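thread from #wetlab-drylab

HS: before we spend reagent money on co-crystallization trials with copper (II) ion, can we at least see a predicted complex? here's what I'd submit
DV: go for it
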Amino acid sequence: MTKQLFVKLFTIITLLLFSSAAFSHAKSVSADPAPRSVVTRSPERITVLFNQQLEPAYSTIIVTNSNGKSVTEKSAIVDPSNNKRLTLTLPPLSSGKYTVSYKVLSLDGHVVKSTYTFRIKQGAPLAN
Ligand SMILES: [Cu+2]
């Protein structure tokens, strides 16, 4: 095949691959607390909702404080009644910035990882 034809085909295949990847991967559609939000009290749990069903054995959330230390030894749970929903129960947390890192395996076989932060306002009550 000519070089020109090869370049054209390569471009078309690349475009197809990228566009299908963009549609097929699991993606978080909402999170509570929301990314970059400031909350006035310690949240009872982190909830992340995805656009695809998750594989419970390989779906995790880790929440770390500003020192990079994980705040709970509990594991995230995929909701048995809605397996697009991943939750992690939290202990009472003091004010400050927290990082939520999640890694999920969706039923399409892809692993998706992401991180976001939220902040608990200064002077927020310690209890949930
Ligand atoms: Cu995918």
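DV: The longest strand covers residues 96-105.
HS: ok that's useful, forwarding to the group
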